[in-house]
RNA sequence: GGGCGUUUAGCUCAGUUGGUUAGAGCAGCUGAUUUACACUCAGCAGGUCGGGGGUUCGAGUCCCUUAGCGCCCA
């Protein structure tokens, strides 16, 4: 048996060394032609490349990688691709800032334009064409993706890099557009002109999942409306008086006694003098203000609901820039009793932002005596786009929707079928599905995204006929309706009367990333592969995107395959900063992984991550990384030691049989228990317990077992004790078998250190070894015996001589305590050692007496049987110094 | 407002179906030692399990209540 153990083992540089080696040898490649091994497939979360990878990613991706490596070792053909989410708004924002550019679709393409970061950070953004802008996005995301890949490789993710996909790539485009077309034909996807939440800064619609409620200070205005045909007045309250011109009705709760007589009558809006009905609806809150509210087009989503349910008129006044649009009160849509004065009042606010218009019109109302009371301060929640800075408006526009409301029940059932880890995370999904209020708007008025694959005919009057969309054929996909021409038309007919025009919009990023299982596993491309991979085994992800990524993916899988996209999901917690505060860019406490890897090593960072349980928030704790590093170093050193003693000189001539010493057999039995335990834990996706079991054993193996058998394993004699060659071999092969097994148990957690050690004395990669079996450790020991002696040598175990390591370690500990209390060296001799206990306990020491004598440094151990002795009693006398 | 999670040694966390003196690592303190490992080794000390009530022979572990923290939904 030959070893090549470095003189001074080190963790330095092993990330680069082994990640390159793995790439070359292809140990992590999915074997598509292997149709016999069971498959374990992972639906990788594609990280947003426009952001930066932080410790939170490391946590979740390491958990996934531990499972991937474990499954690979248990004989699975692991399908573990990586995806990059480069599509969408976050990328646009990063590109705008990075290159100092802004997309202006009215500008024409400049082929020679090369985006470069601006020299003057304060310079105004350079307007460029849509195509140039999209190219700039492509360029930067590719650079970002390389940096991300480097980090993942350094962290040791066992990804099959040949399967990498991106959410803007050709494959993703084809899948997204194909799904779009099919859903449209089935009626699961529709388009129409309807009220939509709109971000005035981003100039785009947003979906329910992207909303964020923010508590804000506002003013509650109290305004008098006069009642039609009387001199009476009714007081309504609102936070948005600037919407007065778009008021279409007043509403109160049907149970509110104050307004019973008013229902069915009409009120006149102040200033604009438009007659509006007074109606009843249960959503009107009795105890909110005066209990009667104005319904506008549209102040919020409740207005939208009232508009639909009460069948009201439309009087839109807010335009897409969030300003008061130009309207005319002589128009039938705004039927003022006094159009001239209405127009005059309105001209004060026309063109202004909602915020400015609010204060302006409030002043006018007050001046003209329409205030019932002075405005009161209130805290109210306002809806924002999660990435936006201004409150959302509701505007009416053409959008594409995927139906969600119609499938609520089935979606809840699918949530039940999914195996959630931890199980309580399912509640978040249920909450979300139950709270769905609108279908999913998937169109975004942006540039860098997958085009909506639709054209519209232009009629002979030059009007776009949105109701007759032209769809591409499936085999034409992917298409860009701005570049490509629908069949039956000429490119020259673009934008002409009787011609066609492409849909301007792109899809919401989630409309693509909700298809990652289909994109990765060959849907509609390789049906044989798809059948084998889908549904996938594991979806790991963060708790923050249950309502988006997880929900949408289930929805899409249900719509296209009528079943779940995966069998299991593991939801990771947040990573908190070292002070247990949530990390966020604005707080500036984001922990980035690369410096941590440089400081502690990848295995150390993985160790920290492995100690975070699914669903539990975990602090970025460098202390834990230090402990991980210690473990990795211990693995190097202990292995080096075991190999060194195994290789030290010993005359094995004529050895044909070795009997395993009782303590050696005991430590192997301990390890069998650990293997069973770790396997069970990992099988149930509990990586933390799996690590804990192995780590505890391994550390005790180093501190207790190796210390105990050191002398015997070297084959030297001390304290007048000599060991036979058989006994020495027994210790050597046990140490080797334990190291071998421990390396495999630790390989998913510490892939670099274990691989490094494996390379010293075994062939191949530790990551393609079989996961240890609790029944075959003895076989491993026997194999090492064959290597150290001759292949024919037999190994005998002592069934009748079974002992427990715990009893032995207990005496070890008691003697150490005595020496420590005497402040003397562990190598100082013990002059007298008496152990009293029941015969069954004493038997342990009889069978390990020689090892104990040399390890404790004593030439005599007095063992006394006493059946009345409940506990072990040890008398220790140290030799005088 | 509804819901989920969490509260165990100075810190970070284990404590499986309720059962003997509540565990670990780190930090602290006391030592040892440099032929596997100073990114070492040994030992010591330190909690009555957020508060209150209850069920039980017995509760950190079940029930009720209350408070703090975090998050989800409205």
Automatic annotation (TrEMBL):
<feature type="binding site">
    <location>
        <position position="585"/>
    </location>
    <ligand>
        <name>ATP</name>
    </ligand>
</feature>
<dbReference type="InterPro" id="IPR013155">
    <property type="entry name" value="M/V/L/I-tRNA-synth_anticd-bd"/>
</dbReference>
<dbReference type="GO" id="GO:0005829">
    <property type="term" value="C:cytosol"/>
</dbReference>
<keyword id="KW-0963">Cytoplasm</keyword>
<dbReference type="GO" id="GO:0002161">
    <property type="term" value="F:aminoacyl-tRNA deacylase activity"/>
</dbReference>
<dbReference type="InterPro" id="IPR001412">
    <property type="entry name" value="aa-tRNA-synth_I_CS"/>
</dbReference>
<dbReference type="GO" id="GO:0005524">
    <property type="term" value="F:ATP binding"/>
</dbReference>
<dbReference type="InterPro" id="IPR014729">
    <property type="entry name" value="Rossmann-like_a/b/a_fold"/>
</dbReference>
<dbReference type="InterPro" id="IPR048044">
    <property type="entry name" value="Valyl-tRNA_ligase_actino"/>
</dbReference>
<dbReference type="InterPro" id="IPR009080">
    <property type="entry name" value="tRNAsynth_Ia_anticodon-bd"/>
</dbReference>
<dbReference type="InterPro" id="IPR002303">
    <property type="entry name" value="Valyl-tRNA_ligase"/>
</dbReference>
<dbReference type="GO" id="GO:0006438">
    <property type="term" value="P:valyl-tRNA aminoacylation"/>
</dbReference>
<dbReference type="InterPro" id="IPR022874">
    <property type="entry name" value="Valine-tRNA_ligase_type_2"/>
</dbReference>
<protein>
    <recommendedName>
        <fullName>Valine--tRNA ligase</fullName>
        <ecNumber>6.1.1.9</ecNumber>
    </recommendedName>
</protein>
<dbReference type="InterPro" id="IPR002300">
    <property type="entry name" value="aa-tRNA-synth_Ia"/>
</dbReference>
<keyword id="KW-0648">Protein biosynthesis</keyword>
<feature type="domain" description="Aminoacyl-tRNA synthetase class Ia">
    <location>
        <begin position="18"/>
        <end position="101"/>
    </location>
</feature>
<keyword id="KW-0436">Ligase</keyword>
<comment type="similarity">
    <text>Belongs to the class-I aminoacyl-tRNA synthetase family. ValS type 2 subfamily.</text>
</comment>
<keyword id="KW-0067">ATP-binding</keyword>
<comment type="function">
    <text>Catalyzes the attachment of valine to tRNA(Val). As ValRS can inadvertently accommodate and process structurally similar amino acids such as threonine, to avoid such errors, it has a 'posttransfer' editing activity that hydrolyzes mischarged Thr-tRNA(Val) in a tRNA-dependent manner.</text>
</comment>
<dbReference type="Pfam" id="PF00133">
    <property type="entry name" value="tRNA-synt_1"/>
</dbReference>
<feature type="short sequence motif" description="'KMSKS' region">
    <location>
        <begin position="582"/>
        <end position="586"/>
    </location>
</feature>
<dbReference type="GO" id="GO:0004832">
    <property type="term" value="F:valine-tRNA ligase activity"/>
</dbReference>
<dbReference type="Pfam" id="PF08264">
    <property type="entry name" value="Anticodon_1"/>
</dbReference>
<comment type="subunit">
    <text>Monomer.</text>
</comment>
<keyword id="KW-0547">Nucleotide-binding</keyword>
<dbReference type="InterPro" id="IPR009008">
    <property type="entry name" value="Val/Leu/Ile-tRNA-synth_edit"/>
</dbReference>
<dbReference type="InterPro" id="IPR033705">
    <property type="entry name" value="Anticodon_Ia_Val"/>
</dbReference>
<keyword id="KW-0030">Aminoacyl-tRNA synthetase</keyword>
<feature type="domain" description="Methionyl/Valyl/Leucyl/Isoleucyl-tRNA synthetase anticodon-binding">
    <location>
        <begin position="665"/>
        <end position="831"/>
    </location>
</feature>
<feature type="domain" description="Aminoacyl-tRNA synthetase class Ia">
    <location>
        <begin position="128"/>
        <end position="617"/>
    </location>
</feature>
């Amino acid at each position: 048996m030959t070893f090549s153990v470095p003189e001074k083992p080190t963790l330095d540089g092993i990330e680069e060394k082994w990640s390159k080696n793995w790439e070359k040898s292809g140990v992590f490649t999915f074997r598509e032609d292997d149709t016999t091994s069971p498959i374990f497939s992972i639906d990788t979360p594609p990280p947003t490349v426009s952001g930066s990878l932080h410790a939170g990613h490391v946590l979740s991706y390491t958990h996934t990688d531990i499972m991937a490596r474990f499954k690979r070792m248990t004989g699975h053909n692991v399908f573990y691709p990586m995806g990059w989410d480069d599509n969408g708004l976050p990328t646009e924002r990063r590109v705008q800032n990075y290159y100092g550019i802004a997309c202006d679709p009215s500008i024409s393409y400049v082929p020679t334009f090369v985006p470069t970061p601006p020299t003057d950070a304060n310079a105004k953004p350079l307007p460029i064409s849509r195509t140039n802008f999209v190219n700039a996005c492509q360029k930067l995301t590719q650079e970002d993706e390389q940096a991300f890949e480097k980090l993942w490789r350094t962290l040791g993710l066992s990804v099959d890099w040949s399967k990498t996909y991106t959410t803007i790539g050709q494959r993703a485009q084809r899948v997204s557009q194909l799904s779009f077309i099919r859903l449209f034909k089935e009626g699961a996807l529709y388009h129409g002109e309807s009220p939509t939440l709109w971000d005035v800064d981003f100039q785009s619609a947003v979906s329910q999942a992207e909303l964020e409620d923010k508590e804000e200070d506002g003013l509650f205005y109290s305004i008098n409306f006069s009642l039609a045909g009387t001199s009476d007045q009714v007081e309504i309250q609102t936070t948005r008086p600037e919407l007065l011109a778009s008021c279409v009705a007043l509403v109160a709760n049907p149970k509110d006694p104050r307004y019973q007589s008013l229902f069915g009558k009409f009120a006149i809006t102040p200033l604009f003098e438009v007659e509006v009905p007074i109606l009843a609806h249960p959503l009107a809150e009795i105890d909110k203000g005066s209990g009667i509210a104005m319904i506008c087009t549209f102040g919020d989503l409740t207005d939208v609901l009232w508009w639909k349910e009460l069948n009201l008129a439309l009087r839109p006044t807010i335009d897409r820039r969030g300003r008061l649009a130009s309207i005319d009160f002589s128009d039938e849509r705004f039927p003022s009793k006094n159009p001239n004065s209405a127009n005059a009042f309105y001209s004060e606010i026309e063109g202004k932002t909602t915020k400015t218009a609010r204060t302006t019109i409030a002043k006018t109302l007050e001046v003209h005596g329409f205030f019932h009371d002075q405005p009161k301060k209130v805290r109210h929640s306002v809806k924002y786009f999660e990435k936006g800075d201004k409150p959302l408006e509701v505007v009416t526009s053409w959008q594409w929707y995927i139906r969600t409301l119609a499938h609520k029940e089935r979606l809840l059932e699918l949530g039940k079928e999914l195996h959630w880890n931890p199980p309580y995370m399912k509640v978040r999904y249920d909450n979300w599905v139950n709270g769905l209020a609108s279908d999913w708007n998937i169109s975004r008025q942006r540039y860098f995204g997958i085009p909506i694959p639709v054209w519209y005919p232009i009629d002979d009057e030059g009007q776009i006929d949105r109701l007759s969309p032209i769809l591409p054929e499936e085999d034409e996909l992917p298409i860009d309706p701005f570049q490509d021409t629908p069949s039956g038309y000429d490119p020259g007919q673009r934008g002409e009367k009787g011609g066609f025009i492409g849909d301007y919009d792109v899809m919401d990023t989630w409309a693509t990333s909700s298809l990652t299982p289909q994109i990765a596993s060959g849907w509609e491309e390789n049906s044989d592969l798809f059948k084998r991979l889908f549904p996938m085994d594991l979806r790991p992800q963060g708790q923050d995107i249950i309502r988006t990524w997880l929900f949408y993916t289930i929805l899409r899988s249900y719509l296209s395959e009528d079943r779940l996209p995966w069998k299991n999901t593991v939801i990771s917690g947040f990573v908190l900063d070292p002070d247990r505060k949530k990390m966020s860019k604005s707080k500036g406490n984001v922990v980035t992984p690369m410096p941590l890897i440089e400081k502690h090593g990848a295995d150390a960072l993985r160790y920290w991550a492995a100690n975070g349980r699914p669903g539990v928030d975990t602090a970025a704790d460098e202390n834990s990384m230090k402990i991980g590093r210690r473990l990795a170093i211990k693995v190097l050193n202990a292995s080096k030691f075991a190999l060194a003693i195994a290789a030290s000189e010993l005359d094995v001539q004529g050895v044909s049989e070795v009997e395993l010493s009782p303590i050696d057999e005991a430590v192997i039995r301990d390890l069998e228990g650990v293997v069973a335990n770790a396997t069970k834990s990992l099988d149930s996706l509990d990586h933390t317990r799996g690590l804990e079991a192995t780590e505890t054993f391994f550390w005790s193996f180093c501190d207790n077992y190796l210390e105990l058998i050191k002398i015997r394993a070297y084959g030297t004699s001390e304290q007048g004790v000599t060991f036979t060659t058989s006994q020495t071999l027994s210790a050597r092969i046990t140490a080797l078998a334990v190291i071998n097994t421990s390396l495999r148990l630790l390989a998913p957690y510490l892939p670099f250190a274990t691989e490094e050690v494996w390379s010293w004395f075994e062939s191949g990669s530790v990551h393609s070894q079989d996961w240890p079996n609790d029944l075959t450790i003895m076989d491993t020991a026997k194999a090492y015996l064959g290597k150290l002696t001759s292949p024919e040598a037999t190994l005998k175990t002592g069934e009748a001589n079974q002992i427990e390591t715990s009893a032995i370690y207990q005496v070890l500990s008691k003697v150490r305590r005595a020496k420590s209390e005497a402040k003397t060296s562990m190598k100082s001799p013990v002059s007298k050692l008496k152990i009293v206990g029941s015969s069954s306990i004493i038997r342990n020491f009889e069978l390990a007496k020689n090892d104990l004598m040399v390890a404790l440094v004593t030439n005599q151990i007095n063992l006394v049987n006493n059946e009345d002795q409940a506990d072990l009693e040890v008398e220790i006398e140290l030799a005088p110094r």
